[in-house]
Every structure is written in structure tokens, then in C-alpha cells.
Amino acid sequence: MHVFKTPFELEQNVGKSLGQTDWLEMKQERINLFADATGDHQWIHVDVEKAKSGPFGAPIAHGYLTASLANYFLPQLMEVQGISMGVNYGCDKIRFPSPVKVDSRIRGAGQITSVERTKDGGIQAKVTITIEIEGSDRPACIIETISRYYPA
Questions:
Q1: Confidence (pTM)
Q2: Cα angle, residue 125 at apex, residues 145 and 69 outer, rounded to 5°
Q3: Collapsing DSSP states into helix, strand and coil, what is residue 23?
Q4: Which of 73, 84, 96, 140 is the most exposed place for a label (fewest CB within 10 A)?
Q5: What are phi and psi of 139, to 5 degrees?
């Protein structure tokens, strides 16, 4: 965990690796809950028996479930102090190079890729999070997150 005492410290850390988080096991229950929340009940995600004979040999997590976990991993990678609030501003690019099979383990690795000041007095930071799959050479997801931090 990298702690930045103020959002302005981010400006001197462009290119900085934030390291890696702990592993998170992708359980079928999480996949089912995401399917219920989004209405995406495609069989490759929720039909365990059918998915075993499908193209991946097991159920896989939704790509957007994997991407949403960037918000789970980011606070494990960095903390920005001295702010009145922080907001998720969006994402620039998201790619899904490899599926996440049920019961596999994933983690986030981060890097601060750009920082700029906003017109309304905030600091906007782009952090690229690579969601890795244990034992795989290819990541599950590469996502460029954009956060805004407003000084206290």
C-alpha cells in the first residue's frame, strides 16, 4: 500500500509502480451475484454443468465483473490522504485478454500512468490496473482507471 499524504504528491509519482495486492479467489457465488445484479445470466457464467463442456471448460467470470474489481484492488494499492473527497471519474481503456475461470485466483497490480490538475481544483490520476490470474502469463483485464482527488 502506497500512502500519499496529499493529492499533490501524486504529481511526483507518475510512472510509479504500486506493486500487487493479495490474491482474491473468484468463487461461483460472486459470479452468480453479479449475474443477478446485472441480469446477465449467460450460461458460460452461471450454468456450472453446461459450462464444463463449453469453450472454457468451466464457468467464467463476466468481463465487467473482473473490471469492476479494479475498485476493490485500487484501495489496496494506494491511499490518498488530505482530501475532502475522491471520485471515480471513469476509465479510458479496458481490455480482457484472458477469461477468469471459477475458483481461480486474481490480484491487481497498479501503476500511476498520468496525473494532471483539473479546472475545479482537483488532481486527476490515471492508474493502470492489471488484473493478473495466478499461474497465467496473460492478464484477465487491463483497465485504465481515472480518479479525481479534491484537497481538504
A1: 0.94
A2: 25
A3: coil
A4: 84
A5: -75, 160
